[in-house]
């Protein structure tokens, strides 16, 4: 989580009112959005478009996948580290292409839009969707009609996230998108020539905006700007059909050739689905931004918000020490999946935040070297036994309290997930998310207990 998660009983306070208002708007706009279509009907035209623009599609094809919708399948053996996909910039929908499009003048005039490249890309996508002869029509026609991001969750779906930090993030995301929609809806009513010529003026429904935002959020990738001096966002056709697996980055942008290149993560046999690695993200991030949960996620983690109280008489001293190693006195940390749930930054914070005046004076009252400060992040180099016991006792208690905020146990969640009931996709994702988070909190408690026992020996 990039920002501290919203937690507690207030996170849903204004959601019912906002959701009710949005649903009334959606009902009024029900006949304005584009009709439903089977995206697979457009695959043939999409591949023709790719080949007409010199994209080699000899190694992969689109395939239906149960839980993922669609993905890419190998048409022949693809060797690990071999280049199997090359997409030229001209096929990408980017912030740069938005600025050159019919939307360009609005981007230049509106300060909010010019400061939000991802929203610029979303509106660009919508404009092209409603431009009959759009160059990108073959690509847009194969995009999903809806997504499994929390923007599509019902109130019941959201309540399945109770206890998880994701609940606050999901509500915040919905609230922000509703506010953005209201802002841009009013903006598009203005009688300015550069606005009235936009193809979305008569089709700018909440459903269309939610779809465009979700498309960008789930599929965008960072690429260099055309002049190469900065980084911007873009949608990369075909490449964005690859689903996620554990691994490492194998995609890059070749500036000299002006193309996106994707190399095989491992060997893929003919007929096998081809996966790529999206990045070291938690399942919370995958759910919020990509609309899926990956139970085997090696990089899963739980966000935990900690801070030194400003009423602490040692607040300034502790803040100064932490500041020297780039740690704020109040911020979000992570508990990680795996054998070692605590990283160096969290450990350093806990060691300083639990230290008393005498210990701080003794250890950090004189000449403090960077090596001494960096040692705070090293589990093998405690300040002293008493402080170390405080660290692990505190964290064990905090993890225990966080675990109690969930209404169900891991066992109950697992039983429901495996019950065979006809659960909605959001409900299944919520169960998978909760199970993973609780397992991390439980393993953290066990790890802390072990460290406390070691300290007593």
From TrEMBL:
<dbReference type="GO" id="GO:0032259">
    <property type="term" value="P:methylation"/>
</dbReference>
<keyword id="KW-0949">S-adenosyl-L-methionine</keyword>
<keyword id="KW-0489">Methyltransferase</keyword>
<dbReference type="GO" id="GO:0003779">
    <property type="term" value="F:actin binding"/>
</dbReference>
<dbReference type="GO" id="GO:0016279">
    <property type="term" value="F:protein-lysine N-methyltransferase activity"/>
</dbReference>
<keyword id="KW-0808">Transferase</keyword>
<keyword id="KW-0009">Actin-binding</keyword>
<dbReference type="GO" id="GO:0005737">
    <property type="term" value="C:cytoplasm"/>
</dbReference>
<dbReference type="Pfam" id="PF00856">
    <property type="entry name" value="SET"/>
</dbReference>
<keyword id="KW-0963">Cytoplasm</keyword>
<dbReference type="InterPro" id="IPR050600">
    <property type="entry name" value="SETD3_SETD6_MTase"/>
</dbReference>
<dbReference type="InterPro" id="IPR001214">
    <property type="entry name" value="SET_dom"/>
</dbReference>
<dbReference type="Pfam" id="PF09273">
    <property type="entry name" value="Rubis-subs-bind"/>
</dbReference>
<dbReference type="InterPro" id="IPR015353">
    <property type="entry name" value="Rubisco_LSMT_subst-bd"/>
</dbReference>
<dbReference type="InterPro" id="IPR025785">
    <property type="entry name" value="SETD3"/>
</dbReference>
<dbReference type="GO" id="GO:0018064">
    <property type="term" value="F:protein-L-histidine N-tele-methyltransferase activity"/>
</dbReference>
<comment type="similarity">
    <text>Belongs to the class V-like SAM-binding methyltransferase superfamily. SETD3 actin-histidine methyltransferase family.</text>
</comment>
<feature type="domain" description="SET">
    <location>
        <begin position="58"/>
        <end position="279"/>
    </location>
</feature>
<dbReference type="InterPro" id="IPR036464">
    <property type="entry name" value="Rubisco_LSMT_subst-bd_sf"/>
</dbReference>
<dbReference type="InterPro" id="IPR046341">
    <property type="entry name" value="SET_dom_sf"/>
</dbReference>
<protein>
    <recommendedName>
        <fullName>protein-histidine N-methyltransferase</fullName>
        <ecNumber>2.1.1.85</ecNumber>
    </recommendedName>
</protein>
<dbReference type="InterPro" id="IPR044428">
    <property type="entry name" value="SETD3_SET"/>
</dbReference>
